[in-house]
Amino acid sequence: MPGMNFTYDFVVEQPGTYWYHSHVKGQYPDGLRGPFIVHDPNDPFLSKYDEQVVVTWSDWYHEQMPMLSSMYLSMSNPNGLNPVPQSALLSDSRDVEFNVKPNKTYLFRMINMAAISGFYVWIEGHEMEIVEVDGVYTEQTATDAIYITSGQRYSVLVKTRKDTSANFAIVGSIDQTQFEEMEHGSGHDSMSMSMPMPTSKPMGAAPSPSKPMSPATMSMSMSMSMSMSMSMPMKRNPAATTMADASMTMPMPGGTIPGAGSLNVTGWLVYDDSKEMPKPKLLDMYNPFDDFSLSPLKKESLLQTDHSFTLNVTMDAAADGLMYSFFNVLSTGDNAINAQIYGNTTNPFIFPYDSVIELVINNLDMENHPFHKHGSHMQVVARSPADAGPYNGTLPSPPQNPIRRDTVLVQSNGHAILRFRADNPDIWHVIGGLVATFIEAPLEMQKKLVIPANHYQLCKSQNISIAGNAVGNTQDVFNMTVPNRPAKSSGSTNKPIKQGLGD
Asked: For the segment 8-49, what is each residue's pLDDT rounded down to a tens digit?
């Protein structure tokens, strides 16, 4: 709240590459975010690199999230199309130079902090070796390129060349398939933008190769503050960009935005700053590494399912799913295991303590969607290519040491099968239409969770109930007389609700 401060006090128990960000009203794309790196004194790769650097990827909008969210959820956007960013950012800037020394190995910790955009990432003239994803160490795995969806993290080892005869581009290219062709209905200007469509690949396929836009760069008349933890020199090259693509018009709900920028961003590994910063080469095809084939360094056998749940992601009108679940759990006694108290529009799933949960996600939407779970990693048991349709009940041969992540991309009109152990009493929910609420071990949570006084005070300052069921009813927890925070009506009867910006 304006004029207030808030302190988070917690014990860090797991090392790796993370990030902090707001979970309120899509604030984080406007800047309330940053890397959160937990260094491991027992890092199994510590002896394999000389220095490390934190790199972030993100999309940048000229409008702030309150206006973008309003446009996104408005009648002028009946198909729920994502707003297209004006540019891509590398470490909250553009044209960033990373000074490197020859014949050294650097650990690049890469974080996608974007509102929506996934990124294809590669370093020209250099190979990357993946050693960590989402805080999970992996077998050292070589690749020329990765795809990193919103919320995901990768740590890669990069060995520099032996000579200093040239500098090399680091390129991030936004996945254009997340921004569909847009056609406005009556009363709006017609406009469209053709995007490359993915092709099918076998089970577990990474985002399908597609032809990129030319990786041109664009200068920006703005300054960005850096919030980074890194041990190598970095600077911005203000003279390296051109105005290529400056006249390109990008689609947005309700109208066009003139002067939209490139959906690519370039930095450089700088061996010699007296030499040119070369323009990236145009690729014929993206070919990112398939993260489904990674193996965790610490082996964990395929979990055997106790309970299976299915989530179908569809484009139906829905409520926003906001709720006060922690208070529901802590103030309703034995009724905390009854899904009814969590409301009529929140799709609650209650998981018994220490049980193994299988989550089948059928993405029936035309866009890829990242799914993130707080509190634990998930085994990625299967993941279909795009257009494979819903899971048909037949599980192909699953990996015996499946990759574990907390953020998983599910491709358009495809599915994924995830498994995790409900051993971390917690609540997880998403906003903006991908509405599900996972309540892990609520009775166990009542025994272990203590909410600090400042949390209660923050709720009271906003007139948020701190007891009772989803509507704050403490007398009859099964009475949902008060509407459970439905989505604001726009007058549309078929307004789709998709992944909310910044949620």
From this structure: 888 888 999 999 998 877 889 999 999 999 999 999 999 999
The answer to whether 385 and 205 are in contact (CB under 8 A) is yes
Per-residue model confidence (pLDDT) at position 385: 94
Residues 66-122: pLDDT tens digits? 888 888 877 777 777 788 899 999 999 999 999 999 999 999 999 999 999 999 999
DSSP type of residue 296: B
- Amino acid letter for position 70: S
- Tell me how crowded residue 365 is: count the other CB atoms within 10 A of its CB: 20
Q: Of 431, 459, 323, give the one whose Cα is nearest residue 1.
A: 459
| Average pLDDT of the segment spanning 192-221 | 32
CA distance 336 to 342: 9
Question: Hey, what amino acid is at 48?
Answer: K
Structure tokens given for 389: 């349709």
Q: What's the chain's Rg over C-alpha atoms?
A: 23
Do residues 123 and 168 lie in contact, with contact meaning Cβ atoms separated by under 8 Å?
Answer: yes
51, 107 Cβ separation under 8 angstroms: yes
Question: Which strands sit side by side in the sheet containing 426-429, from one edge to the other?
Answer: 348-351, 437-440, 426-429
The CA distance from 53 to 350, in Å, is 40
Give pLDDT tens digits for 340-365.
777 766 677 788 888 999 999 999 88
DSSP strand E in 135-187: where?
Answer: 136-143, 145-148, 153-159, 168-174
Q: What is the 3-state secondary structure (H, E, C) of 426-457?
A: EEEECCCCCCCEEEECHHHHHHHCCCCHHHHH
Tokens 């060349």 correspond to 161
Check if the beta carbon of residue 376 is closer than 8 Å to that of residue 423: yes
